[in-house]
Specification:
mainly alpha, 6 helices, DNA-binding, 62% helix, homodimer
DNA sequence: TCGATTTAATTAACATATTAACGATTAAGG
DNA sequence: CCTTAATCGTTAATATGTTAATTAAATCGA
C-alpha cells in the first residue's frame, strides 16, 4: 500500500522521459543539435534578446550548464553574447541569422512530435495530467517536512 | 493553439522534476548519497543479487553511467561486484551489510517524501496522471514518424 | 561617500547522461 | 566443431547536471 519504488514520482517521470525524448533527440541529431541547445534557440525565437538569468528560468537549464551550452552555440555561430551597457554584469544572448534560420527549420518538426505525443491521449487526459503535475510541483518544498529549517 | 513551448511534455516533466527532486536530494545529501546511488541501493533492497543489465533497467540508469555509480558505491563499501560463474560475462551487484543498513535507515524517510508528494493531489488525480503518462510513453516511438526507418 | 550586501555570470570539482566502440564470452547455425 | 552473430560489462569522448565558490558590478544604508 505504501508507495512502490516503481510508482514513485521520480521513476514515473524518468520512465516517461526515457520513452519520449529519443523521438526528439533523433530529430535534433539530424541538425547537430542537443536538446539543451534547441531549448535555447527556441526561447530566442520568441524573445530576441534574453539575459542569462531569464534564459536559465525559461529553459530550465541551470545557470552553470548554460555557460557551456552557449559556448558551443556560439562556436557554431548560432547565437552571440552581448554585454549589456546599462548593467555591465548582465549578458544578453541573441540568435544569429544562422541560428534563427535553423530554428525556423527545426521548429515545425518539433511541433509535430509535440502534437503526436499529445495526441496519444485525449485532450482532457492531457489537461488533467498537466494540472496534477503542476499541483504536485506546488506542493513540493512548500511543506519543508519537519526538518526544521526554521530559524535562519 | 499549437503546443506552447512551456506546455510541451519535456518542459512539463522537467518543471515537475526541478520542483520535487530537491526534497529528495536534501535527504540523500545527509547520508552522502546521490539520487542514483540511492536508486541502486533501493533495488538491491528487494533483490539481493542483480546483474548490471537488470539494474540498469530497474533504476533507469544507463549502463555506462552505472559503472561509475557502482564504483563509488563500492568505494564506500555499500555494494560489491561478484562475477558470475555460469556466465562469466555477467556481474552481480550485491549490497554489503553496511549498504543494507543504510538503505534501511534512509528508506522510511524516502517513503515519507513519496507519500507527501502523492498527498498533494487526490488518489484519483494521481492515478489518472500515472495512467496518462504511461499511455504517452507507449505512444512514443511506437509511431516512428515518416522518417522511414522501415526496411532494416 | 564608503563599506556591507546583493546580483549576474562564470569557474571549479565532481557526478551523471549519451552515443559509439571494444574486449571477453557465450549462443547459434551450418 | 568452427565461424559468426549476439551479449555483458566496460572504456572513451563529449555534453550536461549539481553545489559551492569566485569575480565584477551594482545597490543600499549609515
Amino acid at each position: 500500500m505504501s508507495v512502490n519504488f516503481d510508482n514513485s514520482l521520480p521513476m514515473i517521470l524518468h520512465r516517461t522521459l526515457d520513452a519520449t525524448m529519443p523521438d526528439y533527440r533523433e530529430l535534433f541529431a539530424r541538425y547537430n543539435l542537443t536538446e539543451q541547445q534547441w531549448r535555447i534557440l527556441r526561447v530566442l525565437w520568441s524573445s530576441k534578446k534574453v539575459t542569462s538569468v531569464d534564459l536559465s528560468n525559461r529553459t530550465l537549464i541551470p545557470a552553470p550548464s548554460l555557460v557551456g551550452v552557449i559556448d558551443r552555440l556560439e562556436k557554431k555561430d548560432l547565437v552571440t553574447r552581448v554585454r549589456s551597457v546599462e548593467d555591465r554584469r548582465a549578458v544578453f544572448i541573441v540568435a544569429t541569422a544562422k541560428g534563427r534560420a535553423l530554428e525556423a527549420e527545426v521548429s515545425p518538426q518539433v511541433t509535430e512530435i509535440d502534437q503526436q505525443l499529445r495526441a496519444s491521449v485525449t485532450a482532457e487526459e492531457w489537461q488533467v495530467m498537466e494540472r496534477v503535475l503542476g499541483k504536485i510541483a506546488l506542493g513540493a518544498n512548500a511543506a519543508p517536512l519537519k526538518t526544521a529549517q526554521g530559524a535562519k
